[in-house]
Each structure stands twice: as structure tokens, then as C-alpha cells.
Design goal:
Layout lengths: L2 E2 H7 L5 H9 L3 E3 L2 E3 L5 E2 L5 E3 L2 E2 L8 E6 L28 E3 L6 E8 L2 H8 L7 E8 L4 H9 L2 E2 L2 E2 L4 E8 L4 E8 L6 H8 L4 E9 L2 E2 L8 E3 L2 H15 L1
Parallel strand pairs: 9-15
Antiparallel strand pairs: 1-4, 2-3, 2-5, 5-6, 7-9, 7-17, 8-9, 10-14, 10-15, 11-12, 13-14, 15-16
Helix pairs in contact: 1-2
């Protein structure tokens, strides 16, 4: 049965479906030796598919890792400027991994790495509203009114954010800083930083501490571990419950 090329690539662990579409459009994919740039192109089971000159393995084992991304690392599998990327930490892993979503260069914390494109799409789809908790060190003393605004939604890029959970952890009067926990389920570009900017409390340091049912417990910056079958099942269950 013929399937769309980007779907086959995602299932083979090349990249997420959306990222695979970009790779196709850039002319980096060949099917039976012919360069394909058409996003609707369909392939058969016995077709030969190569990306950047390397044949893809359609039956590659699906693997899932929880990674504690350090600050100063790019959420990408390569960088044309030679900067450190998340895939550098997985060079000993035989499967071709890519990140689920992204964390900014200067943001640390929880990131899922996998070669399962369908799983990645499921986790990233805004419809499913998977909660993510961030710990932010901000400039200024957070107030109850600030927390109320963050919780009810603030205007960023001309649109109001969805309701969130905001909680003060601590304040330092002398340094004029605060530590705040913010839980959101959206994934807008630079969303957390922009939310704090909207209340005039710029972020100085940011880390993602949870993703759905996952936490960073037991890991230090730069470390990773494989997700258990139960953890993967719980994440998928989260998505399923939101479909009902």
C-alpha cells in the first residue's frame, strides 16, 4: 500500500513529519535514485529511499530518551556554524534521533529524543495540551497581581495565552529577583519569556522541569536515560484522554 513519503520518513526515524517535509522540499531525498521535492509523493514498501545520500531503514527499532539539555546547546541534529547540538550527546546511540519540540539555546531542562515520528507529532500537536512546567529566575519581585495575570493569560504577539498555573517559589529583595514556577500547555515561540516580558519581569534563567508525566528526577545536566514502557504508555494515555 502506497504511503506519503514524509510519513514513511517519520516512521523510519529520519525526523518528525513536518521536519521531513522540509527535508523533501530542500531536495535532499531520493526515491529509487530520483530526487523528490513533491510533498504529496507516495512510495511503495519496496521503494528505495535515501536522505542526504544515505539509505533509510524502514524497520528501525523505535527508541525514546529523556534528556536533560544543558544551557548553551542548540535543539537540533546539526548546526552549520559548528555549535554544540543535542544530538552530540547521543553519538553512541545507533538509531538516528531527533528532538520532540525545542528548547531555546539558553534554556535548560527536559527534552524527549526519539526516532518515532508519529509519537513526536502526537506530543507536539497543540490540540493535545500536554502540560509543561518551567522554573524561571526573573528580574524584579513577583506580585500576586503578576501571578494572577500569568494564570489568566497575557497578550503576546497580539494574542492572549491560555490559562496557566503560576506560583512564586522565592524572592531575593537585595538582588531584586524572583523564582517562579509556570505551567503551560501551549508551545508558542519563546512563550514563557514573552509572558514574563508582558508583566515587565524579564527572564534571566529558564529551565523546563516537567513534560506531561515526566520529570528530571535522577538526572543532571547533559545526562539522559531511556524512557520506560510505562512512561511512554502514560504519555500516550494523556493524549488519548484529551481526544475524548
Amino acid at each position: 500500500m502506497a504511503e506519503r513519503l514524509q510519513k514513511v520518513m517519520a516512521r523510519a526515524g529520519v525526523a518528525s513529519r513536518r521536519a521531513s517535509e522540509k527535508i523533501i522540499a530542500e531536495g535532499r531525498v531520493k526515491v529509487n535514485g530520483q530526487t523528490i521535492t513533491e510533498l504529496g509523493f507516495k512510495v511503495e514498501q519496496d521503494d528505495s529511499i535515501s536522505v542526504d545520500g544515505k539509505l533509510i531503514k524502514k524497520d528501525e527499532k523505535k527508541v525514546y530518551y529523556l534528556f536533560y539539555k544543558p544551557r548553551g546547546v542548540i535543539t537540533a541534529v546539526s548546526d552549520d556554524r559548528g555549535r554544540k547540538v543535542v544530538s552530540d550527546y547521543f553519538e553512541a546511540i545507533p538509531e538516528r534521533l531527533y528532538p520532540v519540540g525545542r528548547l531555546d539555546y539558553d534554556t535548560s531542562g527536559l527534552l524527549i529524543m526519539t526516532n518515532d515520528g508519529d509519537f513526536a507529532n502526537m506530543m507536539m500537536h497543540p490540540r493535545y495540551k500536554i502540560e509543561k512546567t518551567y522554573i524561571a529566575k526573573i528580574k524584579g519581585i513577583i506580585t500576586k497581581e503578576d501571578l494572577r495575570q500569568l494564570s489568566n493569560g497575557v497578550i503576546i504577539d497580539g494574542k492572549k495565552t491560555a490559562k496557566a498555573k503560576a506560583r512564586k517559589i522565592s524572592t531575593d529583595i537585595k538582588k531584586d529577583t524572583s523564582i517562579v514556577s509556570l505551567t503551560i500547555h501551549e508551545g508558542k515561540y519563546h512563550q514563557v519569556k514573552k509572558m514574563f516580558e508582558s508583566i515587565k519581569k524579564p527572564v534571566q534563567k529558564l529551565s523546563r522541569e516537567t513534560y506531561g508525566t515526566l520529570t528530571l528526577d535522577g538526572l543532571t545536566s547533559g545526562q539522559f536515560r531511556e524512557l520506560s514502557h510505562n512512561e511512554i504508555r502514560e504519555l500516550k494515555k494523556l493524549v488519548t484522554s484529551m481526544q475524548e
